[in-house]
């Protein structure tokens, strides 16, 4: 129960009850390597004892950086077993971001996946006064590295085995000291409005949220879970780390980020969690393959896709599906839906979640209509990643589902969603003032999201409260709603809508270089770079037509009237979006102020100077004269 067990105690239970069952797998050189719960426990014990021998003590912080790897998860659990705190960081963070989090969290130990990540930390070592030990998993390329504070994880485990022989019972004794109100994890927020804040999550927060999820969802011991999301995201911490320990299902780590889709198809996981960007990328891939198909294949796909979406709309409205349409769906399952699910690796998936940001309703309906039990889940870092989710029979693109059992939700001033429950975090590390701003004395947490509860009891999230505004005529303006409509196009990767207190809506669009590039190649349209491709008149005409299609699904007042194609994608390294791909609107509005002025001054071009940040922190500038387009203009036919 949540009031009795800490995470390490679940590890001890699993090593006894599920000793021979697979706990975690890793694909290495094309072969899946399996570790049982007994092996999982033994590795965690040896790492923990090795860290203890090297001076790691209760309250110290350990950070992991790299792709999803069993040993990085074991290292987090090892630190927690010793009464320490896990601080996972984003593996693609640039130097400035890493230095901020590692310093703010006062990290004593960093466990890095490979040479690339070790080199990042080495370059920052003089800026990290609390760092005492750097540990690496993969030794390739580091034979000549010689530092007294640098060790391989294999060395740490060997040292742990020797320390354990000299101190029998030490590991168990440290676990016994643990209490449910001890902080186990620092989960740093995405930082949409400034520097990330370290949300302190206790064992009680994590275990209570795990109990809530298992009560609300069909999670089984024999489930297979694919661990591919950033370890620093609360979604991965909750599902891959906490739920794995609590339920005992099997976690699977892909060979590399580049092989995720292939490994997903090979594994066929029974449950999937993905942010909207992943679902949008999957849909784009399906749309591109369908568009590239010839003759009868394309017509068959389009016909059965149309049938599936009509049936899904009827089901969502609670209406019966006519017999003729049911027969079409049966044929479509054989010819289209089943093969598509198989290609995506979702044929065995009982349920799939989208979370982290709103998913466009058209994208949501597409997957539902193809037989994938995709559902919305809502949460945030400060509430341990879970507030509400949709029951299987009540999945709907317009809601975030019902509040989970034991979690209270109410709507506060200006429509802000407030949450209270056992998952609400302990506070922000070293920031009591910010904690008091978002957590009331009686435990209500201010999410910062605007929403309401519909007549069925479902929570509906409109947008970030601070982003919801109104056009000059008083019409509602919710930028995410408009952006999601635009991103349904396979040719649009990102969009940022403007319109608050303005006479109409305008948008900056970043093209998808892969799909637009393929489109250009099929038409013999030569280009040299993203910049060159995005500014082609033919591409501007293509995107204008795509925006028109999106406008057809928007209320007249919220339709996009003018747009501009960016010369580069929005990038987390340039602080335009967060690592979870949320737009940092305040920063973007300041950075692209000349563009916004040009939109509403009726100008046709704007001089755009955009800064770009390299991985080592160096910066450069791209300068270009960029065209602004009116959506109502007649398209250029190509």
Descriptive account of the structure:
By secondary structure, the chain is α/β, with parallel strands linked by helices. It folds into 3 domains: about 5-260, Rossmann fold; about 275-345 and about 350-465, 3-Layer(aba) Sandwich (Rossmann fold), CATH 3.40.50.12780; about 470-630, 2-Layer Sandwich (GMP Synthetase, Chain A, domain 3). It contains 21 helices and 28 strands. The strands form 7 sheets. The chain has a 5-stranded parallel beta sheet with strand order 4-3-5-6-7, with helices on both faces. It starts with 6 loop residues before the first helix and ends in an 8-residue tail after the last strand. Residues about 635-638 have low confidence and may be disordered.
The low-pLDDT segments are 634-638
Which strand-content bin applies to the residues?
Answer: 15-25%
What is the structural class?
A: alpha/beta
Strand line-up in the sheet with most strands: 4-3-5-6-7
Give the termini distance in whole angstroms.
64 Å
- Helix tally equals 21
Brief overview:
This protein has 638 residues and is of the alpha/beta class.
């Amino acid at each position: 129960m949540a009031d009795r067990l800490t995470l390490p105690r679940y590890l001890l239970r699993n090593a006894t009850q599920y000793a021979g069952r697979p706990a975690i797998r890793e694909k290495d050189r094309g072969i899946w390597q399996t570790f049982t719960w007994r092996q999982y426990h033994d590795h965690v014990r040896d790492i923990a004892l090795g860290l203890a021998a090297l001076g790691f003590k209760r309250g110290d912080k350990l950070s992991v950086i790299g792709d999803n790897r069993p040993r990085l998860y074991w290292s987090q659990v090892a630190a927690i077993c010793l009464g320490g705190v896990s601080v996972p960081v984003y593996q693609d963070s640039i130097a400035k971001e890493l230095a901020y989090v590692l310093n703010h969290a006062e990290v004593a130990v960093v466990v890095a996946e490979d040479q690339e990540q070790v080199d990042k930390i080495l370059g920052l070592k003089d800026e990290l006064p609390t760092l005492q030990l750097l540990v690496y998993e993969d030794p390739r390329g580091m034979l000549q590295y010689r530092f007294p504070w640098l060790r391989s994880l294999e060395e740490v485990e060997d040292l742990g085995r020797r320390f354990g022989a000299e101190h029998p019972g030490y590991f168990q004794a440290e676990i016994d000291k643990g209490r449910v109100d001890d902080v186990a994890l620092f989960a740093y927020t995405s930082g949409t409005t400034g520097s990330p804040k370290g949300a302190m999550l206790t064992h009680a927060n994590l275990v209570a949220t795990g109990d809530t999820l298992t009560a609300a969802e069909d999670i089984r011991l024999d489930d297979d879970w694919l661990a591919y999301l950033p370890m620093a995201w609360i979604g991965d911490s909750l599902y891959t780390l906490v739920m794995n320990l609590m339920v005992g299902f099997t976690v699977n780590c892909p060979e590399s980020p580049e092989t995720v889709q292939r490994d997903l198809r090979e594994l066929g996981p029974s449950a999937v969690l993905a942010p909207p960007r992943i679902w949008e990328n999957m849909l784009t891939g399906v749309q591109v393959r369908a568009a590239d198909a010839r003759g009868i294949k394309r017509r068959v796909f389009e016909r059965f896709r149309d049938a599936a979406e009509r049936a899904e709309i009827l089901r969502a409205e609670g209406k019966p599906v006519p017999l003729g349409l049911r027969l079409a769906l049966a044929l479509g399952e054989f010819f289209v839906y089943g093969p598509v699910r198989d290609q995506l690796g979702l044929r065995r998936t009982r349920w799939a979640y989208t979370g982290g940001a709103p998913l466009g309703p058209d994208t949501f309906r597409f997957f539902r209509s193809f037989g994938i039990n995709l559902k919305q889940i809502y949460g945030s870092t400060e509430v341990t990643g879970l507030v509400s989710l949709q029951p299987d029979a009540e999945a709907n693109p317009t809601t975030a589902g019902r509040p989970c059992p034991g979690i209270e939700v109410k709507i506060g001033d200006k429509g802000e969603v407030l949450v209270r429950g056992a998952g609400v975090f302990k506070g922000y590390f070293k920031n009591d003032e910010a904690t008091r701003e978002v957590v009331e004395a009686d435990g209500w947490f201010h999410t910062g999201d605007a929403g309401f509860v519909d007549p069925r009891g479902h929570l509906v999230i409109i947008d970030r409260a601070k982003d919801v505004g109104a056009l000059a005529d008083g019409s509602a303006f919710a930028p995410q709603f408009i952006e999601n409509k635009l991103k349904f196009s396979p040719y649009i990767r990102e969009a940022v809508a403007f319109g608050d207190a303005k006479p109409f809506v305008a948008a900056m669009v970043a093209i998808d270089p892969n799909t637009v590039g393929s489109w250009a190649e099929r038409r013999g349209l030569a280009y040299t770079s993203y910049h060159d491709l995005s500014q082609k008149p033919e591409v501007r005409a293509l995107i204008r037509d795509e925006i028109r299609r999106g406008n057809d699904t928007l209320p007249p007042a919220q339709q996009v009237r003018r747009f501009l194609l960016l010369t580069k994608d929005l990038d987390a390294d340039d602080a335009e979006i967060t690592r979870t791909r949320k737009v940092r609107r305040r920063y973007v509005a300041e950075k692209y102020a000349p563009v916004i002025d040009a939109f509403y001054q009726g100008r046709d071009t704007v001089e755009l100077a955009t800064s770009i940040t390299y991985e080592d922190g160096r910066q450069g500038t791209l300068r270009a004269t960029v065209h602004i387009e009116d959506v109502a203009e007649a398209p250029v036919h190509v």
